[in-house]
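Chapter review: from sequence to fold.
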Amino acid sequence: MWCKWFVLAGAMLWAAAVWAGEAEVSDQKSLAEWVDLLGSEDAAERASAAQQIGQLGAEAAEAVPALVKAVADPDPQVRVYAAWALARLSTDAEPAVPALIDMLDDAAHPAVGPPGWVMASYALGQIGPGAVPALAKAVQSHDPLVCRGAGSALHLIGAEARPAVPALMKVLEEGHSSDTRISAIYALKGIGPEAKAAVPLLIKALDCEDFHTQYFAAQALGAMGKEAQAAVPALRRKVKEGVASVRRHAAAALGDIGAAIGEEGVQTLIEALHDPLEPVREKAVIALSKLGALAEPAIPVIRQALAGRTLAARAQAARTLWRLTGEADEALGILMVEMDEARDPLTAADVLGEMGPAAAPAVDVLTQRLSSRDADIRLYAARALGRIGAPAQAAIEQLKGLLEDSEKDVRQAAAEAVKKLKGQSPETDQP
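The token string follows.
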């Protein structure tokens, strides 16, 4: 349940950032006129006014007092647009923090956009450090919705939410419900290494009866990198003994902690390459790719797993082999098959881009993928060609053809690739 909630929350917070921004900006009214319309008796007019004020961004700072009133509007659509407008104002919207905190228990779904608590959480995250004191109090609420919204906002603020760490630790220490515990852990994950004081409590959370709490704790420890070195023994144990979701997140955390996991940590990841479940094996091979020379003992095991087809994450394995050996031919052989057979073309394209000029033999295949019906494949192929550099100059004309693509991300990737390739020459960009 919690996994689904936070995946949903993350997606909705992302949607909150872009959803209302697609409306056309009206130049028929001034800011003052839009503010006046926030007082209209017609809810649709009030919602439209809030949306248009948001479109103005920083130019609408004078509208903050009116928007603060609007987040308490009886109509959920008005509330959501008003919160979105405040998010667009970022730090200028700090006076709205109390009103947005009050909105964190708003579960109503408007006709368009996410529910109120999601937009309020997003807005508080965009306001940033100025919202941290109020969020530190809200995250201790026993109302799961308020706690979830506050935790998500602190996660968005990131390292600058460090002053909230004592409050988050208090939530973990006092044994709140799993809902509030996970909200606190999610916030700590976003804060990252700046939350290192919470490492002992997160280690303890790895043994919580609720396995959802366990894997969120593993994620948070991974986000703290080398500052979570003390958690390595507990994470190694979870890779071996946890339920499937805990095993894979614990394996990922070991990779994120890095070389501080030592030879014993590497051995645990090597053993995880034989886990009965593919998602765990995939996380293990990805983790090994982050460990440099320390992970060299894994090379023959990865090759054996590929030969025996016990590792489906072949593109990820190719990345790991490339990083550990620096040998292009072996990785290219795997990646070209992944591109040709469309088994994992996105990861394969990403790895080819990472290889840079060494991936020159893949230029033709990537160029062909620029005409794929799948926008994501076009996007990743364009990015990869730009990263490969001079050997991909022959693809410039095909990349130019994507400058009119229907997808904005594809157009941007193509433009960036063309810019990179035009500034390079085969003579100056060899491996």
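Two observations follow directly from the output. Residues 426-431 have pLDDT under 50 and may be disordered. Residues 328-431 form a domain with the Leucine-rich Repeat Variant fold (CATH 1.25.10.10).
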